[in-house]
Amino acid sequence: MEIAIFLAFKESMRDLKDVGQDRRLVDYYLKEYSKQFNKIYIFSWKNEKYDFGIKNVVLVPNSKNINIYIYNFILPFIHKGVLKRVSLLRLMQFTPIIPAVISKLFWHKKIVATYGYIYSEFFKTKGSFLKYFFWRTVEKIGLLFTDAIIVTSPKMEGFVKKNNFKNKIILIPNSVNIKEFCLMKKEIGIKKEILFVGRFEVEKNIENLALAILELKEDVKLTLIGRGSLEQKIIKLLDDGGADYKIIQSLPHKELKEMYQKSDIFVLPSLNEGYPKVLIEAMACGLACVVSKYDGYQHIIKENENGLVSGFDKDSIKEKIEKLLKDEVLMKKISKEARLFVEKNNDIEKNIIEELENIKSLCEK
Q1: Which of 35, 40, 78, 225 is the most exposed place for a label (fewest CB within 10 A)?
Q2: What is the tens place of the pLDDT at every residue in 93-125?
């Protein structure tokens, strides 16, 4: 059997490498997929080369540098030789659903897509209403043609069912290598280290995090890992407030793990999330986590047990961080419970086996 894997719309292996995520795809997913399929074709949206180091994994790039919005519709015809050969189309995110649906209409290919995030909600939060209506339409039509959906949370499962999806729904939460992302003995420092990982955009609520840090009475170090349109605004805000901070635009996955392990508190103040990988990675490394009350947090965090839940405003975020800083016993309890939660629910080795069993079963029907 052969399979086509689509990276998220606009995404390339180069993009994944830039943010340290390429090895996660190769080492955790493709090595396991390569044991089950004779040939794996990875569809990238850019003209590029990449050495997977796996004999039966082949990159299918946008070799003519076609505008990606046009390429979105003509990809199935440019690569029809490959797409007619494969047994199934595996979408790592729901965003490349348009070429997948076209392939299904012409060559009757089965589609399995991961649906970890409601894209129409994302654009609604940003106030991009034209994009909201476009994606709302794409989501509804795409679900009609998809043979199986892998959802990452009960929230997403409910959304898919609400849209009258009649085919197979597989609940597999985002996962982490629990052997690699693990607790390490921390050096005892004068200042507690607070970590944020994510885009510097409005929906991540990073400005309120910065304001909360500036109002803390305790002396802390803040590390922000990411980039985005608000970066200069955040830099000015923290500089003017005299914060002890650093910004790292991206890190390889191994170094990101080390950053989790040396930190004390992880803060995710987002307005909207799916089932955030960064939160699971932080919990796996035993960080005490403060998360905002976005719709879906309750499937991961239980207040005062494996994390703390804040509002979206700076005062609430500040209050929860201060609660941890003042209570070492609570921090240790949350750290322990967070790790136990991930061990039980988010072991990538176990979850990939379940994913592959479902995909092979669908291929054989």
Answers
A1: 35
A2: 999 999 999 999 999 999 999 988 777 777 777
- Give the span between the Cα atoms of 260 and 223, in whole angstroms: 10
pLDDT in tens, 262-309: 999 999 999 989 899 999 999 999 999 999 999 889 999 999 999 999
Residues 290 and 306 in one domain: yes
Q: Indicate which CATH number applies to the domain containing 308.
A: 3.40.50.2000
| CA atoms of 101 and 95, how far apart (whole Å) | 11
Reported as a pLDDT band with limits 50, 70 and 90, residue 188 is low
160 with 217, same domain: the answer is no
Q: Which H or E element spans position 326?
A: helix 314-326
**Are the beta carbons of 223 and 259 closer than 8 angstroms?**
yes
Q: How far apart are CA 208 and CA 273, in angstroms?
A: 16
Q: For the chain, what is the domain count?
A: 2
Check whether residue 218 and residue 356 sit in a common domain: no
Q: Which of 256, 227, 349, 200 is nearest to 20 (CA)?
A: 256
The 3-class SS string of 244-309 reads: CEEEECCCCHHHHHHHHHHCCEEEECCCCCCCCHHHHHHHHCCCEEEEECCCCHHHCCCECCCEEE
Q: What is the DSSP string of 106-163?
A: HH--EEEEEE-S-HHHHHHHHT-HHHHHHHHHHHHHHHHH-SEEEESSHHHHHHHHHT
Instruction: Establish if 185 belongs to a structural domain.
Output: no
Contact 299, 155 (CB under 8 A): yes
Structure confidence at residue 189 as a pLDDT band (50, 70, 90): low
pTM for this one? 0.85
Over residues 244-250, mean pLDDT: 92
In a domain, 286, yes or no: yes
**Structural domain boundaries enclosing 33:** 2-175+347-363
pLDDT band for position 336 (cuts 50, 70, 90): very high
One-letter identity of residue 113: A
Tokens encoding 314:
């700076």
- Please tell me whether residues 168 and 197 are part of one structural domain: no
Cα separation of 289 and 324, whole Å? 9
Q: Does residue 327 share a domain with residue 198?
A: yes
**Angle at alpha carbon of residue 280, lines to 216 and 284, rounded to 5°:** 90
Contact between 282 and 297 under an 8 Å Cβ cutoff? The reply is no
